[in-house]
Write a structure and sequence with these properties.
With about 240 residues, the protein is of the alpha+beta class. The chain contains 4 helices and 9 strands, in the order E-H-H-E-E-E-E-E-E-H-E-E-H. Strand 5 and strand 6 form a beta hairpin. Helix 1 runs antiparallel to helix 2. The N and C termini lie far apart (about 60 Å).
């Protein structure tokens, strides 16, 4: 970290301690559940209950990518940090700061004079009739390169988004006195349930035209709204059944 970051007027953006604490509990709970399921599977196999052991083993293997994803997210949120000083910005951007694909790691200062613009776009991923849309933010350097800052994600069971990456991007644009411009929506590969085979779309080299037709974008947004409402509808049905019994 440069001396520039130790000044009193430096603004810092990072994930809150409470969020990181509860995410740590989630990681510990998931891995404890996985180990318990694996242990039961081994015990059932030893007792000769091959069919049940196989089913439990497959279920454990199915949830393993989810555990790995949550663990990577926890590690990312502990490391991710952006500090804005008078002359330079300082970045601690881990490899896995984007949920569905790696981005080059960056650690160190960047002069505001090197920034040409701040860009952001929606990145959509569809799988099995469901859709999610993340908002990804990036620095467009005057040299032509791109630094991916991070992303804001949908908050489950709502139509709201997290705000940290967007707040940092807007503050950075204001500090560097550069425009904040929206790029066209892009679609990545959602793979299977966004757990296997996912990949992000490449960031455009310049102001590229949208690769998605209006009809496709509308379909993605419709699927996204349905996906966000499914947990709410399921909870409402369960609550109604509870009231009627």
């Amino acid at each position: 970290m440069t001396a520039d970051m130790h000044t009193a007027d430096a603004a810092e953006f990072r994930y809150g301690m409470v969020e990181r604490y509860f995410l740590a509990l989630a990681v510990a709970g998931l891995w404890l559940l996985m180990l318990t399921m694996a242990g039961f599977s081994a015990s059932l196999l030893h007792e000769g209950a091959f069919a049940v052991a196989l089913m439990l083993g497959l279920l454990t293997a199915f949830f393993l990518p989810l555990c790995r994803m949550v663990t990577r997210d926890f590690m990312m949120k502990n490391a991710w940090r952006i500090s804005l000083g008078p002359v330079n910005a300082w970045f601690q951007l881990p490899l896995r700061r984007l949920l569905y694909g790696p981005a080059p790691r960056m650690s160190g200062p960047l002069a505001y004079s090197a920034i040409g613009a701040i860009e952001w776009r929606e990145e959509a991923f569809r799988t099995m009739g469901m859709a999610t849309i993340n908002r990804v933010y990036a620095i467009r350097l005057k040299s032509g390169g791109v630094i991916l800052l991070g992303e804001d994600r949908p908050i489950p069971k709502t139509f709201d988004y997290t705000k940290l990456a967007g707040d940092a991007a807007r503050a950075l644009a204001e500090k560097a006195r550069v425009p904040l411009r929206q790029m066209p929506m892009a679609e990545g590969n959602g793979g299977f349930l966004t757990l296997w085979g996912t990949s992000r779309p490449d960031w455009p080299e310049g102001e590229a035209a949208s690769q998605l037709r209006d009809e496709e974008i509308n379909n993605i947004r419709r699927n996204y709204l349905i996906t966000q409402m499914v947990p709410v509808a399921a909870f409402a049905v369960m609550f109604l059944v509870y009231l009627l019994t």
